[in-house]
Amino acid sequence: xxxxxxxxxxxxxxxxxxxxxxxxxxxxxxxxxxxxxxxxxxxxxxxxxxxxxxxxxxxxxxxxxxxxxxxxxxxxxxxxxxxxxxxxxxxxxxxxxxxxxxxxxxxxxxxxxxxxxxxxxxxxxxxxxxxxxxxxxxxxxxxxxxxxxxxxxxxxxxxxxxxxxxxxxxxxxxxxxxxxx
Amino acid sequence: xxxxxxxxxxxxxxxxxxxxxxxxxxxxxxxxxxxxxxxxxxxxxxxxxxxxxxxxxxxxxxxxxxxxxxxxxxxxxx
Lengths: 181, 78
Description:
The complex is a heterodimer.
Chain A: H1 18-27, H2 31-35, H3 39-59, E1 69-70, E2 73-74, H4 77-81, H5 89-103, H6 121-131, H7 133-158, E3 171-173, E4 178-180
Antiparallel strand pairs in A: 1-2, 3-4
Helix pairs in contact in A: 1-7, 3-7
Chain B: H1 2-13, H2 27-40, H3 46-76
């Protein structure tokens, strides 16, 4: 098939309820696409983003995803990680629990055995000492996973971004013997 | 084959178990996943997605190699 221009490439895409698709895509990467019937794309996005997120957690002992916006630990990277969705929700819950306990002067008792909870200063220094550069790399990988899911959420809500633009695929029109885009 | 499998086992064991050049294995999930998702969110046709992913993947590897060689050259002056 010769594709001359993506404008002429009839994309029959039913996005269904775009709000629900975006919400599902945020909750679990790729599920918004599965809801829309874009199965192969949904599976590819789910595997890719999950693999990247898990790789980031694996190289840093699962310590890099936590929510903290209190000095001296302003964790701005969590804004990007938050777009991974349900995997980042425990970090928000832990933040509310731990900061609430600190505000009332109670001892810190995070949930889930301390997973995804914001560290105190001593813990944070230990984590950096234990994991060295891998703490930063794990943060980067999980942050990139979140940012990629932000693209995926947009794709689920509004369709592919380059639609209407020029295709990067060059094909040979064998009948005419000339190259067309 | 056994060597390749042992590298994968080291990858699963975490960075402490792979102190040498094997750490470069971490580059592959980053490049493959980033280029694939980037391509998939810009196009709908899998032929175009694959072409875009390969283009982005090549660009990422080129950039990483460029930064590596700059860092390597700078390290000689340390």
